[in-house]
Design a protein that fits this description.
It is a single chain. The protein has helices spanning 16-25, 36-39, 52-61, 65-73, 83-88, 184-196; strands at 6-10, 29-33, 44-47, 78-81, 89-92, 105-110, 121-125, 135-139, 144-148, 153-158, 161-167, 170-173. With 197 residues, the protein is α/β, with parallel strands linked by helices. The strands form 3 sheets. The chain has a 7-stranded mixed β-sheet with strand order 2-1-3-4-12-11-10. Strands 5-6-9 form a 3-stranded mixed β-sheet. A hairpin with a 2-residue loop joins strand 10 and strand 11. The N and C termini lie close together (6 Å).
Length: 197
């Protein structure tokens, strides 16, 4: 890998474009990923926000679920926001019928924990490993983490709830940093990808 890692954004559903822009501004070569062969060409992957049930069904439909699980197990760096956090959880507290996850982070996640769409909000979040001011987090029908296992590290909390977790090469936030113009979380993830190099 060169100093400019190739990072994919899972482009089945959700706010793909915003992540592509944030990754590019953090000095990565960003590209959408929809098929297993595209997944095999990237150094890391972002799973965006969107609708987690729809995403998991589309991942099965596009033949992406097993290849995703395999790459994550092999240590490919992966970052999930909102619905992406749900997909990276080893367990969902209240899954919809047929909802599957990629897994990779030893955590139990509660879907839509912060409320419905009209209860969306922004908040300043202190994220471990990010210098300077707090990150502005956009919470849209956001999940929170009920509990983490021994291998997972809590990197941010809001209102007494866990909203960001890291385990090895996997990072997850319940908020959307890609919607704010502050790309420090993406820069952290790009550094994680470079470190695997």
């Amino acid at each position: 890998m060169s100093d400019t890692p190739v990072i994919g954004v899972l482009a089945l559903q959700g706010d793909v474009r915003e992540h592509l822009i944030a990754l590019a501004s953090a000095d990565a070569l960003a590209r959408p990923v929809r098929r297993p062969e595209e997944l095999s060409e990237v150094d890391g992957l972002v799973i965006p926000g969107g609708e987690s049930t729809t995403m998991s069904k589309l991942a099965v439909l596009f033949g992406m679920l097993e290849p995703l699980r395999e790459r994550v197990r092999e240590g490919m760096p992966v970052y999930g926001t909102c619905a992406g956090m749900i997909l990276l959880a080893d367990k969902i507290l209240d899954p919809r019928a047929g909802q599957e996850t990629v897994g990779g982070i030893d955590m139990i996640v509660r879907r839509n924990a912060f409320g419905r769409q009209n209860e969306s909000f922004e908040a300043a979040v202190e994220v471990a490993g990010i210098e300077g001011d707090p990150v502005e987090g956009v919470f849209i029908r956001a999940p929170w983490v009920e509990s983490v296992g021994a291998r997972a590290e809590v990197v941010a909390e809001h209102g007494g709830h866990i909203v960001a977790v890291r385990q090895g090469n996997a990072l997850a936030t319940s908020f959307h940093p890609e919607l704010t113009g502050d790309h420090r979380v993406h820069a952290l993830f790009v550094d994680m990808v470079r470190a695997v190099g």
